[in-house]
Design a protein that fits this description.
The structure holds 2 protein chains of 2 kinds.
Chain A lengths: L3 E3 L3 E4 L5 E7 L5 E8 L3 E10 L2 E4 L7 E6 L2 E6 L8 E8 L5 E3 L3 E5 L1
Parallel strand pairs in A: 2-11
Antiparallel strand pairs in A: 1-3, 3-8, 4-5, 4-9, 5-6, 7-8, 9-10, 9-11
Chain B lengths: L3 E3 L2 E5 L4 E7 L4 E9 L5 E8 L4 E4 L2 E6 L4 E6 L8 E9 L6 E2 L3 E6 L1
Parallel strand pairs in B: 2-11
Antiparallel strand pairs in B: 1-3, 3-8, 4-5, 4-9, 6-7, 7-8, 9-10, 9-11
The chains are: A mainly beta, B mainly beta.
Chain lengths: 111, 111
């Protein structure tokens, strides 16, 4: 069965802290994605990766970076968290048949 | 750039049919998707349709695609309270990896 796992479901961080959101998939997919979801705005793409050590900016990359050292793991990094980064973050990976599978989401609150 | 639009809210009675609509702007879209999100959860793929198809049926779900008008719809027959959720449409082109999402339609099923 397809599985995308986001290790942290709920986090509370202080302004200025460095935040790591981890995502692991067990399907050997090349493509992985990080989205953020905000009410009324739908899902917006932050970054995606189409292979190990490869990354592309999405629509809203400012304030974020990513790391893909292994095929199964894609990390989202907030170098210095700010309150406007309070959101739900969704990781996804993509199969060769163009089906995208999502994790359960990570709720981040920055205070 | 790509744009995907949905109405924000739909209310139906249990047992009735629900129709959730979506419009998109990218004429090169090759795959169109419907995802369901229950409260506090990630996105679950419901169904998808290739752009060379007009209709796809899967049990209670019927997807209709009008390529000329760039209009996609999801019909849920015999709507149940368990269908209450946010429904997202999304599109992608064959050569791009990213998926562009609509804002989501919240479906409320009343007794």
């Amino acid at each position: 069965d397809v599985k995308v796992t986001q290790s942290s479901r709920y986090l509370v961080k202080r302004t200025g802290e460095k935040v790591f959101l981890e995502c692991v998939q067990d399907m050997d997919h090349e493509n992985m994605f990080w989205y953020r979801q905000d009410p009324g705005l739908g899902l917006r793409l932050i970054y995606f990766s189409y292979d190990v050590k490869m990354k592309e900016k999405g629509d809203i990359p400012e304030g974020y970076s990513v790391s893909r050292e292994k095929k199964e793991r894609f990390s989202l990094i907030l170098e210095s968290a700010s309150t406007n980064q309070t959101s739900m973050y969704l990781c996804a990976s993509r199969s060769g048949r163009n089906t995208i599978y999502f994790g359960e989401g990570s709720w981040l609150t920055v205070v | 750039g790509e744009d995907v639009e949905q109405s924000l809210f739909l209310s139906v009675r249990e047992g009735d049919s629900s129709v959730i609509n979506c419009t998109y702007t990218d004429s090169s879209s090759t795959y169109l998707y419907w995802y369901k999100q229950e409260p506090g959860a990630g996105l679950q793929l419901l169904t998808y349709i290739f752009s060379n198809m007009d209709m796809k049926q899967d049990q209670r779900l019927t997807v209709l695609l009008n390529k000329k008008d760039k209009h996609l719809s999801l019909r849920i027959a015999d709507t149940q309270t368990g269908d209450s959720a946010i429904y997202f449409c999304a599109e992608t082109t064959g050569t791009a990896s990213k998926l562009t999402f609509g804002t989501g339609t919240r479906l409320q099923v009343t007794l």
